[in-house]
Structure formats: structure tokens, C-alpha cells
């Protein structure tokens, strides 16, 4: 069933949209079913759980950290994480840079932007984003690559609101893109709203329950 769900979603995605299979809370065998169907990018929101899966599962899997990240946890995943979606402060970005340097590598990051009208979600606002991107200190970080932006819409059935929020992120993305050509990825859209997100310009969708089924 996981295989069927995955392939159905994958086949319906436009070519320029990357699928992150969100496997948080799911057992290894579920991930392996998706893996056998060709999926290589998996998203987790807890560092410890991701580290365990990385240790046990095939090494060609690309692990994306999609959850809220505490600075003291960065060190545990710095060796292998492929993309960190939820970077919502400059202090966190500096910590990722430091741990990447200790591991002799660069870590790709997305800056998380606050677009939801509810104020429970993390993220930078447009001014904070611009302050970071224009600062000398940011340009001196040699072991991180900020390759895009990420956001979560409000959890609501109101499609108009969700669309408006995604559109807001796309507008911010377009405003910084000319001066920051390395910023190419727009991570927005989950099981309930990824079609709207793609219509509004998403290039990376994070889909969990529509592939793996409901979480407990
Ligand atoms: C859990 C999670 C998802 C996937 O949610 P589904 O509704 O199961 O598709 C996407 N993004 C983030 C940040 C998540 O925490």
C-alpha cells in the first residue's frame, strides 16, 4: 500500500517538484517499502529518531531534518544530514556551520519563514530574513549553503487562507532570489495542501500521512 501511495503521488508531481517522504514515527520496514519503490529522500522531525534510522538503513538515503531543531542537537546529525529545512535563527545557522566544519563538510539549509496567521509556528519574518542575508557574518559562514526557504501554512480547511499564505512565501522568495541566486528551493506543502503549494510555486513537498498512513 505504501508503494502504491508513493507511486501515485510521485507520478502526479510536476518534474520540477522534489518529494520528501515524511517518515517520522514510522518503523524501518515502512521506510524500506518506500525505498524499494525508489524513494531516496526521507524527512524526519526528531534528531534521535533520524540518527537511528540513518544507522540502520541503506546509506544512499538522503535524510532531511524537517522539524524544529534545537542547537544542542545539531552535532548528532552533522555527519550525514542532507538538508535542514527549519533553520529559524542566525544562532542555529552558526551552530550548523560550526558542526559541519568539524565534519569537514558543507550542510545545505533552508531558512524557515513564518507565514501562518496562527502564531504557533516557528520562522523568520521578511525583515529578519533580509537582515541575515545582507549581513557580513552570514557571508563568512563557509560550511553551510542556504539553498532555499521553507514554511508551513496554518492548519486549517480554509483553502483560500492556505493559498494566500503560500503566495506570501513565494513573493518573499521572488524578492530575494535575484540577489541570492543560490536560493532555488521552495519547500512548502504537506499531505493536506501540497497541490495548492505547487500551484503557488513550491519546488519541494513534504508528504507523510498520504504515503505512510495516519500517525498515532
Ligand atoms: C509531519 C510534517 C509533514 C508531513 O505531514 P503530513 O500531513 O503527514 O503530510 C510535513 N512537514 C513538516 C514540517 C512536518 O512536521
Description:
The protein is of the alpha/beta class and 216 residues long. The chain has a single domain, classed as Alpha-Beta Barrel (TIM Barrel). It is built from 10 helices and 8 strands. An 8-stranded parallel β-sheet has the order 7-6-5-4-3-2-1-8. The longest helix has 18 residues, at 159-176. It is globular. It starts with a helix and ends with a helix. The mean pLDDT is 96. It binds pyridoxal-5'-phosphate. Residues 22, 24, 45, 66-67, 152, 190-192, 206-210 line the site of pyridoxal-5'-phosphate.
Layout of secondary structure:
Blueprint lengths: L1 H11 L5 E5 L5 H9 L4 E4 L2 H10 L5 E4 L8 H4 L5 E5 L2 H13 L4 E6 L13 H9 L1 H4 L4 E7 L8 H18 L8 E3 L6 H6 L4 E4 L1 H4 L4
Parallel strand pairs: 1-2, 1-8, 2-3, 3-4, 4-5, 5-6, 6-7
The structure holds pyridoxal-5'-phosphate.
Pyridoxal-5'-phosphate binds next to strand 8 and helix 10.
Enumerate the spans where pLDDT stays under 50 for 5 or more consecutive residues.
none
What ligands are attached or bound here? pyridoxal-5'-phosphate
User: For the record, what CATH class applies?
Assistant: Alpha Beta
Report helical residue fraction. 40-55%
Number of DSSP helices? 10
Biggest β-sheet strands, sense, barrel: 8 strands, parallel
Shape: globular
What is the H-and-E element order? HEHEHEHEHEHHEHEHEH
Oligomer: single chain
> What is the gyration radius calculated from CA atoms?
17 Å
> How much strand?
15-25%
CATH architecture: Alpha-Beta Barrel
Strand line-up in the sheet with most strands: 7-6-5-4-3-2-1-8
Number of strands: 8
CATH level-4 homologous superfamily = Alanine racemase
Instruction: Give the structural class.
Output: alpha/beta
Mean pLDDT, to the nearest integer, reads 96
What is the total number of structural domains?
1
Q: Looking at CATH, which topology would you report?
A: TIM Barrel
Amino acid at each position: 500500500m505504501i508503494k502504491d501511495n508513493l507511486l501515485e503521488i510521485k507520478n502526479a508531481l510536476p518534474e520540477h517538484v522534489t518529494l520528501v517522504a515524511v517518515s517520522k514515527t514510522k518503523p524501518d520496514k515502512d521506510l524500506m517499502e518506500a525505498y524499494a519503490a525508489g524513494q531516496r529522500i526521507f524527512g524526519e522531525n526528531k534528531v534521535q529518531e533520524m540518527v537511528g534510522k540513518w544507522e540502520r538503513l541503506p546509506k544512499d538515503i538522503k535524510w532531511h531534518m524537517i522539524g524544529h531543531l534545537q542547537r544542542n542537537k545539531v552535532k548528532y546529525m552533522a555527519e550525514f544530514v542532507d538538508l535542514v529545512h527549519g533553520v529559524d535563527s542566525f544562532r542555529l545557522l552558526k551552530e550548523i556551520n560550526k558542526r559541519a566544519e568539524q565534519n569537514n563538510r558543507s550542510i545545505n539549509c533552508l531558512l524557515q519563514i513564518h507565514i501562518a496567521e496562527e502564531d504557533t509556528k516557528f520562522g523568520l519574518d521578511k525583515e529578519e530574513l533580509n537582515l541575515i542575508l545582507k549581513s557580513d557574518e552570514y557571508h563568512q559562514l563557509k560550511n553551510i549553503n542556504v539553498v532555499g526557504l521553507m514554511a508551513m501554512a496554518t492548519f486549517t480547511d480554509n483553502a483560500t487562507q492556505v493559498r494566500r499564505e503560500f503566495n506570501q512565501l513565494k513573493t518573499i522568495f521572488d524578492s530575494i532570489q535575484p540577489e541570492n541566486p543560490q536560493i532555488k528551493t521552495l519547500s512548502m506543502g504537506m499531505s493536506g495542501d501540497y497541490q495548492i503549494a505547487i500551484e503557488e510555486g513550491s519546488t519541494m513537498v513534504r508528504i507523510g500521512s498520504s504515503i505512510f498512513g495516519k500517525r498515532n
